[in-house]
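From the shared-data thread, chain only:
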Amino acid sequence: MTITAKEAIFSDETRQYVVPYDPLPGDNVNISIRTAKDNINTVYMHIQDQAGPPIAMRKTGTDAIFDYFTAAIIAPDSHIRYYFTIVHEAETLYYNKNGLKATLDPEYNFRLAPGTFVPEWAKGAVMYQIFVDRFKNGDPTNDVVPHEYTYLGLTAKPAPWDSDAQPLDVCNFRGGDLRGIMQKMGYLQSLGIEVIYLTPIFVSPSNHKYDIQDYDNIDPHFGVIVDDGGEALRFERVHNRYATKYRHRITSKANLEASNNLFAEFIETAHRHGMRVIIDGVFNHCGCFHRWMDKEGFYHAHDGAYNNLDSPYRDYFLWKGDNADTNTYHGWWDNANHPKLNFEGSPQLCEYILSIAAKWVSPPYNADGWRLDVAADLGLSEDFNHQYWRKFRTVVKAANPEALILAEHYGDPSPWLNGHEWDSIMNYDAFMEPITWFLTGVSKHSEESRPCLKNNAAAFENAMRYHMAKLNIHALESAMNQLSNHDHSRFMTRTNSATGRLHTVGPRAADEGINRSIMMEAVVFQMTWPGAPTVYYGDEAGLTGWTDPDNRRPFPWGYEDTTLTELHRVMIGLRRAYPVLKTGCVDFLWMHHGFISYGRWDARQKVIIAINNNAMPKEVVLPVWKFGIIEGQLMQLIVTCDDNFHRDVVWHHVAAGELKLTVPGYGAIVLG
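Structure, as tokens:
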């Protein structure tokens, strides 16, 4: 066995090396690092930006191949960054999340986050995102009727379930609803799903509902329509007649109460099936149909700010020019249907949104948390943004201490992951983007091609290390790791390494040249990497599609890719059978062109994963001694290749800390 002294050095922020890993300020904390046995005598822990000498670490344990050094500290009141120095053969080296280096890059320093608590149920949980209108029509009586209303110059209408999306698709409805999801709770439970994440469900004129019209009520088209107005709908092209009918269907007190009651029943049903529910909070902007703006003159009260300078909601919005004589407002990214909310200008607005934050995670609804849309955009300054999310967290956690607060964010999220604002994030930078570039060579929108990044294992590892270093361990273990979602192309389409959009190449091009074996590689990675793997509805059924709106194709009930569905079920089952895949350490093993391998381990379990994105099989020798495996056998848990997967019991021999392995072309192997 050849143990490389420098490769033997390891530490991270998991329970294996930080005890307790979730300390309160003032707690005693033991922080450890691993070295090769009888190889290193001097190790120091340094707290970044702290005056005084480093902490000399003492040897506290040893085993067959490793020594362990520990430093005892008192957890401070605030988050800290730390790193190690190691004296090896008269050379002083630095160790942090970037590994052992001759110079220190503080960007990669470890994080200790005293007082930071993320609900345990979210750490490593398998989530499932549902775009409600496209999942399952469980109640046709609540469907949008033809010509029900107009919005953005488009006429709202039902569309056949299996029809193609249109470039402007916001008013084409397939009829998916809460009843439909409830009818498929058994299916989700059979997959092993632990958390359902719903895109917005509040009253809104669009099918995506990111332009909310009423935060206090569930949209009856997703809920219940018991009062349909009592008279036949007129189809003349007169806008206010459509609006009048629409107004009754979604403002009827009976409909709103029945829909809210159904949502409470929905949550109860999910909980009974062992699943939690996260809902989408769109608070940076509302919709132009909202009574606060009432751009279309929808509400009888006529107190909307668009046409009424004396509106009580005038200061809810940002107006261009002279506020006294203009009705031109700022929209999010200049979208007129997404008027940006002016939190700084209205204490009343601030308090109202906080009441909404508490309402839906409280009885009788009891949602299990919020996903926050474009969370860093809320407000007009970063300082206010932080202030508001601190208030939001206080209100939500007071209402439901076990609620999760998870934000959509691009870029460095660390300023918000301070224990007082967000719990975690949708993990684009440290998950979706790197694995997409490595396996497919195109962007997550399928709009850009970079062949130099496809199969570039070094670029992949560097990106993962850099962006993962922005997350504390609590945020990392609960980060939403998605291959696809409602904003980006389907990962199955990305496997064709082509670029395009619905309006440029049409929907069928998204189905051409796909490589299901690459999709299977991606699923294996998703289900074995740290974080909360989140399946976008239909990914497990083989759905394809360019970016928005083509990524929102209806679930193909009765036409599923059953092999891919079963792969998801098996991989989720492995994840739940091996807790180490949720909370264990992770480290790369051997990387090469088109090939990545890594391990997950703790004191009880060890799992090895190898992924080969080359067309030809790859013979490798993996140094599994890094995970404490010296001799013995590892059982093959699953292998994917040739558009399929296998679970034949095959034992692989480990000799002198090395594992010889042949990984199929476009294949993945998991051993445990």
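The chain is about 25% helix and 25% strand.
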